[in-house]
Amino acid sequence: MSIDRTTTSDVIIIGGGAAGLMCARVAGLRGKRVRVVEHANRCGKKILMSGGGRCNFTNTGTTPANFLSNNPHFCKSALARYTPQHFIDMVEAHGIAYHEKELGQLFCDESSKLIVKMLLDECADAGVRIDTSCSVEGVEKTDDGFRVRTTLGELRAPSLVVATGGLSIPSMGATGFGYELARQFGHTVLPTRAGLVPLTMTGKPQERFAELSGVSLPVTAQCNGRAFSNFMLITHRGVSGPAILQISSYWNVGDELLLDLLPQADAFETLKSLRASRPGIELRTALAEFFPKRFAERLCEVWFPSRPIRQYNDPQLREIATFLQAFPLIANGTEGYRTAEVTLGGVDTDELSSSTMMSKHLPGLHFIGEVVDVTGWLGGYNFQWAWASGNAAGMAV
Ligand SMILES: Cc1cc2nc3c(=O)[nH]c(=O)nc-3n(C[C@H](O)[C@H](O)[C@H](O)COP(=O)(O)OP(=O)(O)OC[C@H]3O[C@@H](n4cnc5c(N)ncnc54)[C@H](O)[C@@H]3O)c2cc1C
Prior knowledge:
By secondary structure, this protein is of the alpha+beta class. It has helices spanning 18-29, 45-49, 76-81, 84-93, 113-125, 177-184, 203-209, 242-248, 267-277, 283-287, 293-302, 314-325, 381-396, and strands spanning 6-8, 11-14, 34-37, 56-59, 67-68, 98-100, 105-108, 129-131, 136-142, 145-150, 153-157, 159-162, 189-195, 199-200, 216-223, 226-234, 238-240, 258-260, 327-328, 333-334, 342-347, 365-367, 375-376. The strands form six sheets. A seven-stranded antiparallel sheet has the order 19-18-15-16-17-14-20. It has a five-stranded parallel sheet with strand order 8-3-2-12-22, with helices on both faces.
């Protein structure tokens, strides 16, 4: 579709992802003339690939504590005004079947496509005009608002919403455009880095885990005062799985990262009672009762040579137990934006209104979604932030 050479609307939204579509819908329902400019050939590509194709669209337990930001209070207002229940009501109104997987995480029964279709249908009903395959070439402030030069023509509006997302998965259309625009208008952009991302290992630490690729086990991962209990997956380059993705957002290269490999048990008491009940069993056989066999064998090959368990005295068993419950994971980096689910950092919240997402420097300019320095945990929180911040701006423009 081509845009007329110069078109005026009430609000221009750059980015037709989760936050942008929600904002467009809300503003459209308020009677605003809304234009969405999306440079990819379709909207909501990240929604489509989310949750393994089933979109973990919210988390019923969402609280501000589930988000990382330089200002942990910033997200409170928007989250309080657009709750998971608001989104669930819309999902139900569209007849989309869903289920709770674990820990309040809601997924579509069928496909993420239904969430994108729902948002596009809502936008269409609200009279929103969306232009896909449309790139922004420049943005200027004018006396009465903003002029946005695009590959399809020029747009003007008194309000401009930047909803261009973060840097993760560049192949899906992610760009640093929102950060550049923020800087253009005098905003501080806090340093960005990949979050919810697998960790990589090299050298000895990696060799020790070699051949265990594919092994998965429950752990508690701890770093910088945070702990997440869930599964860890050993990959051919390092570690992944929900426990690792969660802790990755709190980890920086060089930080100590400890794994409790037996999070449900007191390892020392467990080993001692095994020694009492079955003194003849080999340590590797004993450990294989708690860990995948290949992992138990590797522990004995690398860290504690296996002998019949009766041959270990209390201090030796305690040493093994301490190692199992505070295993130092030596990672050297992350897989980066190529596979990260989110981008930490971004547009500094100190320069935005928490109720409208509007710039404190430039009235009419709003930033929403992942481009803002608010990042959720794994489990539907990032979409809830996209919906909530999109709603906050959509109500204000
Ligand atoms: C693999 C993967 C799985 C995920 N799964 C989940 C999940 O299950 N649950 C969850 O809560 N979160 C999940 N996330 C995170 C979630 O997708 C994001 O936090 C969320 O999409 C952010 O919304 P947004 O609108 O800010 O950005 P996006 O949804 O990324 O939308 C930004 C849009 O802006 C467009 N754009 C970028 N630059 C320009 C430009 N210059 N001009 C025009 N358009 C532009 C992009 O093409 C894109 O359509 C997942 C992320 C990934 C990568």
